[in-house]
Design a protein that fits this description.
Layout (H helix, E strand, L loop, with lengths): L7 H12 L6 H12 L3 H8 L3 H10 L5 H30 L6 E2 H8 L3 H6 L9 E2 L4 H4 L3 H12 L7 H10 L7 H8 L2 H8 L17 H12 L11 H8 L6 H8 L2 H11 L5
Parallel strand pairs: 1-2
Helix pairs in contact: 1-5, 3-4, 5-6, 9-12, 13-16
Length: 277
């Protein structure tokens, strides 16, 4: 037998054992081998009909591994196994994303058979743009009436009530309610939601040219951003990227208003162009 590569302490232990192998009785050689395998002194003693202390003495006399040697070898072995598993998960995730179709962690986990936590941890960095973040269950708990109640409560603080006001109240904990994408998905627009709640909506500042963008136009610019290797694919950096690369392009707010969420934008934009090179 030999020890794992990279485990200096274990290799040193084997060097000592081998150097005295000609003087090592067969039964002690078995003890040394068992110890390197990770057997405890008590387990080895039970196998040979000796006490734990006697096993320790024989191992020391004949250059067997110390407890520290065994621990270091076990840690090296565990680390190697962990690395192999991580590489296997990353390879499976890469295969699942081979068609360059954006997916959530849960969707990839279902395809690969690996746990969602492993998939999330070992998602290849160069394919991060294909990672969709599923909306949290928190948003799904809101009924239409509960959403309208949250808007009404927010209107007690601000009049007229804008999306910016609502978002700030939400982040400050003054109001408990669903996210803006959830409201847009349920009611189609902020104005419609406010009208249903009997609340006066604040005017949304938007550029006139943005209304001219078709769905395809919006998805093409989003796809260009997602496939740009020089920038992150997070929604928070889209407007910064747009000001530099596509100053006449649509804002992030326009994308979100049209499609409801950044996750939906990513899914549609990446599906639009098919497989990438």
């Amino acid at each position: 037998m030999c020890c794992l590569s990279g485990d200096g302490a274990a290799e040193r232990g084997w060097t000592v054992a081998k150097s005295s192998s000609s003087d090592t009785p067969p039964h002690v050689a078995d003890m040394i081998e068992r110890r390197w395998r990770g057997d405890t002194l008590s387990e080895i003693g039970a196998a040979h009909g000796l006490t734990r202390e006697r096993i320790r003495q024989l191992l020391k006399k004949h250059g067997g591994p110390t407890g520290q040697d065994v621990r270091e070898r076990r840690e090296a072995r565990d680390l190697e196994e962990q690395r192999k598993r991580e590489a296997a998960v990353a390879a499976a995730v890469r295969d699942a994303l081979d068609q360059r179709t954006a997916k959530t962690v849960v969707e990839v986990a279902e395809v690969t058979g690996f746990d969602s936590a492993d998939v999330s941890k070992n998602w290849p960095q160069d394919l991060d743009y294909l990672r969709l973040h599923a909306p949290g269950n928190y948003d799904y708990q809101w009924s239409d009436e509960a959403i309208l109640d949250a808007i009404r409560e927010a209107a007690l603080y601000e009049f007229p009530l804008t999306t910016k006001d609502y978002g700030e109240l939400l982040s400050q904990g003054q109001v408990q309610g669903p996210s803006m994408p959830r409201i847009w998905q349920r009611f189609g627009s902020w104005t419609s939601a406010c009208e249903a709640a009997g609340v006066v909506p604040g005017k949304t500042m938007r550029s006139h040219y943005e209304s001219r963008w078709s769905d395809d136009d919006l998805l093409q610019i989003a796809r260009q951003y997602l496939l740009d290797p020089n920038v992150p694919t997070s929604a928070r950096y889209f407007d910064e990227w747009r000001r530099t690369v596509a100053p006449d392009g649509p804002s992030f707010q326009t994308l979100r208003n049209r499609f409801g969420s950044w996750t939906e934008v990513k899914r549609r934009a990446l599906a639009q162009g098919g497989q990438t090179t």
